[in-house]
Each structure stands twice: as structure tokens, then as C-alpha cells.
Amino acid sequence: MNENExxxxxxxYDTYLAYSAMKQKGLTTKTAGTAxxxxxxxxxxxxxxVFGLESDIITAYVRPDGISGELARRGHIxxxxxxxxxxxxxxxxxxxxxxxxxxxxxxAPTGYxxxxxxxxxxxxxxxxxxxxxxxxxxTQLNSGVNTDLRLRGRLLGVSEADFPRGLTEDxxxxxVFMSEMVKVGMLMARGTTNQMGLTRQNWQGAIxxxxxxxxxxxxxxxxxxxxxxxxDAQSSTACPxxxxxxxxxxxxxxxxxxxxxxxxxxxxLSTLENYLRHNAVRMGLDPVDWIISMRPEMWxxxxxxWPIAYNTNRGAQILGTTAGNVHLTLDATDMTAQRDAxxxxxxxxxxxxxxxxxxxxxxxELTNITSGSVPAGSYxxxxxxxxxxxxxxxxxxxxxxxxxxxxxxxxxxxxxxQTWWTDGGLFSWALDPIIKWCTKMSAKTEQRIVLRTPSLxxxxxxxxxxxxxxxxxPFGNSPYxxxxxxxxxxxxTLDAVWN
Length: 499
What we know:
499 residues; alpha+beta; seven-stranded mixed β-sheet; four-stranded antiparallel β-sheet; 10 helices; 21% strand
């Protein structure tokens, strides 16, 4: 047993002693499995129990990425203990409808404010490790198995709010229990076949997918917030002043010109930006820091055409489709340089202003399988304009999470080492009561994404694009997710006189 393995075993032995003390007080229940189901690394059937295996293990797993990383970078991840936050907005001022005064000393018309409150709901996501039998996790098939492995690459998500950050990725090829915990962290970000992880919930989360008992709950994603039809949280009164600007590209191609009434992406994005900036200025909320978000495949296609489309926008209408000897001249080298700069800096120029672009795997994408309006070989998705802060740097798009540190303080006398928090209270971990030598761990998080100013947000839906090749995806139920290989090795058998 090497030093790391000994340390891991000592930690579990300490936990076992704490469990024994709780058992004497009648504080335990038997819920863990009765046999090891964890994925072994170096023992018999272990994933790396292969003779002559080199030490460097390189990952080919594609991690999810998205808006959560940008929110974390800006510090827009906040702890809370509030279950049902209600946030208010002033939507307008109305007069009382009185007639104009007839005499100088008569009562004049008066006015009153109108307000709208928005309600935000949290989700709940939980994953378990397999059952771990303590005395199996440090076994080695024989001396020919190399246990000195090193991970090359990353496994956990890119967006830091979508997975527990306290995990040690490089131990995934060394320690069984850390390997189990890292897999739980990966599932938090990417989800499973039957439930969405945090990367997708940020955009596509819908309460209609929640289980009846509340064990799995999605929080309303940005698709449900960057929308029209907002209502007051208490009275259900419509609040059109709060509505976002939502445009429909009607499955027109991102490469299309604006001739013959076909939507043009520069025209639409320019109008969207102008509308939202007008709102910000007239509402007294400017300067607003917006990001532009879209799928990575769409960003690649958009940058291919944007320099030419942006520099010639509506040129046909201005010059006339049959303009005699009038020509638009562009330098091909300059257009290529502009395209490359966009990709390198992740910036999109709209109406003379540069906006940061955040690509996100979690944004929904339509195919010819999911929509009859999408031809084979093409895809359709949305482009979003999301406000991050308003004047004074006040955050208006952020994530909140239930702070498990608070609850832990109240049960400190009971918890021993069976329950703890990580990542500043963002994730809660629980160790199932030990049944003899077996246990397992569970992790949960309860988060929500909050958009306080829907009227400063917008999106353009159903934009068609046709990349030469779709990018790989991290989600297990995606046709563009590739894994392969094996999850266990064949059991090693040897002959002896007694068998």
C-alpha cells in the first residue's frame, strides 16, 4: 500500500470509528449496498490492471462548458438560505384618469407607480457513488501492474459552478474513492440519460421535468426567463414592461442576405442590440455589461460570414439591386483578419460596440430529428444577449445556491464525519452508514439562475446553420458523444491444485 492509499484507508477507518459511535447512539440506518460495486483500478477486474501499462493516462473525454464559468469568473455565484426569493421592479407610472383642471384652485390629476415582482425557484440535483468495500479499494492484481499512473488532461467541467471544485482529478487514476467522487462531479455538470446536468439546466431547465417527490428538480433556465409573458409573483397580473425582446428567425439560414424579405443575421442582431440598449439608457440602468451567448458550432459559422455581412449590411437596399456602375469593394485579407480576431478575442462587433461572446454547450439545438423545419445536415438554435451587470456594477444575472454550511452548524453534534460541505457550501456530501466494510457517498446541490432584468435581455430563435462537421459533446445521450472502451477488465484466473 503506497502513501496515498494508506492515507485514504486511514480516512475511512476514522470515518468507521465515527460511525461506530453513532451506531451506539442509534443514529444509523442501513442503506449502503452489501458488496463492492465501485469500479476497481488495480485489483482483479480493475480498469488499469494491465501488464506493462505506461504511467501517463491521457483523457479523450470532452468536458461541458458554458455560462456558469463566466458567472464564476465575475463572482456572480452567491450563497443563500432563502427558498422563494421575490425581487421587485418598477414597471411604470400611470395617471388617475382625472380631467384637466377647470379652475386654478381645483384638484389636478395625480399619478401612481406600478410594480411587478418576479419569483425564482431552485432545483435539486443528486448523484451517488457506487458502494465501496474498504478492503477492495487498495488491492493490486500482482506486482506486474503499474500503479504509478498520471492523468494528462482534465475531466471535470469548465464552468466552475457546475461541479465540486474540491475534487482532485489526478487521483482518479490512483484512488478508487476519489475516482468515484470525480465521476459524481462529472455527472453534476453533464447529467445522465434521464436528467439534465447543471450545464443544460442553466438554459433549458423546466419545472415540468421535476419528479413528483421532489428528489430531482430543475430550476427554470434562461429560456424560461428571457421570454415574454412575465407576471407579478403575487397577483399573476401581466407585466409587459418586464418582457424580453424575443425574435424569430423562422429557420432562415445564418448565411442569407436580406434580399426578398429573408431575415439577415446582422440586421436582426443590430436591431436586438439597439432595442435593449435603448431600454437600458431610458431606464437609467446604463452602462450595462452584456454578453452574447450561443452554441460553439453557431459561433464558428457566424464568424465566417460576419465581417463581410457586417460591412455590407443592407447594401442591396441602399445601392439598389440593379445599381449601374456602383460597387462595394472589400479587401479579402482584411476580412480574414477580422474573422480571425473575432475568434481569437471572442468578441462580436454590433452597432460599433464590441461584446464578449460566451459559447455554451447547454443551449438547445434542433435537428432534422427533432424539428421538421430543419433539413438534414443543418441545425437550428438561438443567439442570446444577456445582461451581466447594470450601472454601478450591480449584478443582474447570477446563480444562487443553498448554503449547506448553515445547516451543518445546526447538526454539528450529530454529524460526525458522515455529512460535510464543499465549495463554500455549494455542494453537500453524505457518507452512507457503513454496513460492516461497505459504504457509499452521495452529493447534492440546490441552485437557481436569476435574471433580475428580463427587459434588458433578448434572444433570436430558430437560426439555421450548416457546419461541415458538428463538434463533439459531453452529454451521454447526444449523438455527438463518443466514448467506447471498457469499464472493467476480464477476471484473471490462475490454476492450482486446489481448483
